[in-house]
Amino acid sequence: MQQRLSFHEEIRRNKIQSFFLITIVFIVLLALVYTVGLIVGGDFFFFILIFGTIISILYVVGGYYKSADLAIASVNAKKAPQSDPKFRQYHNIVEGLCLASGLPKPKLFVMENPQINAFASGRDPKHAVICVTTGTIEKLNKQELEGVLAHELSHVANYDIRFMTLTAVLVGIIAIVSQIFLRSMFWGAGSRNSGGGGNDNGQGKLIIMAIGITLAILAPIIVALVQLAISRKREYAADSSAVKFMRTPTGLIGALKKIQHNSDMKVSGAVAPLFLAKPKKEREWFQTHPPLNKRITRLERM
Q1: Assuming Cys at both sites, which of 36, 74, 110, 232 could form a disulfide with 80, CB separation 3.0 to 4.6 Å?
Q2: Is residue 56 located within the same domain as residue 184?
Q3: Are 277 and 155 in contact (CB under 8 A)?
Q4: What pairs with residue 97 in β-bridges?
């Protein structure tokens, strides 16, 4: 008989693993910056670093502050009025979960889609939104809908948008620095330090340059995979937090099983990482969400 999982322990473990993964991204960034600095040297290196940092931060922070509006607009969602009988249960469940968790009530939206799915966005609990599909409201019973909404509120409570924004900034800086460095090789930016110093010194610089080029090629791939791994850990953490809110995994398990049977689910590519689930068959390493069967198995053990 398998040992039952503690949702408190699962939340703690997933947070530790998420911070460990983001530390890997930071180490890769430091290694790339140091290696490029050795090869390029001088003012040109600082130009690369400063330019890359500014562009990444402006791009991601702009999206961060407008994350909720952009997400809602991208799926053409509409506000779910509490006066409409169709959405009364939706509002009542969220209000109950907010009272239990101490969170402010987010703005509630609905998107026309017969599939079962939902997402949360917003830079903090005071600016959060939750959006569900019409299929979620129509096809889930009250307990299953409560499980889905508890999962989405968990993303808000765990500040997942803020955490993933930090990750995106680091990943963006690495991508930009790598691209500028690789292009500078064709411009001959590294040649200014390539002459003189004897044969041994020349060989040493060639080795460092080879390491730098390899790192510049591999670093964006490595950190992109780490970014996906962090996203999967945050999904596991949100599942565990949903159990903490509800004190039972039954509702979320039922909702995920219904999603699992809907193999033709399609969501907008731009906001796909925000959604509750992505029931695709690709390798887990290349997905923002863990496989549904793994999530269900973990929840069944809580």
Answers
A1: 110
A2: yes
A3: no
A4: none
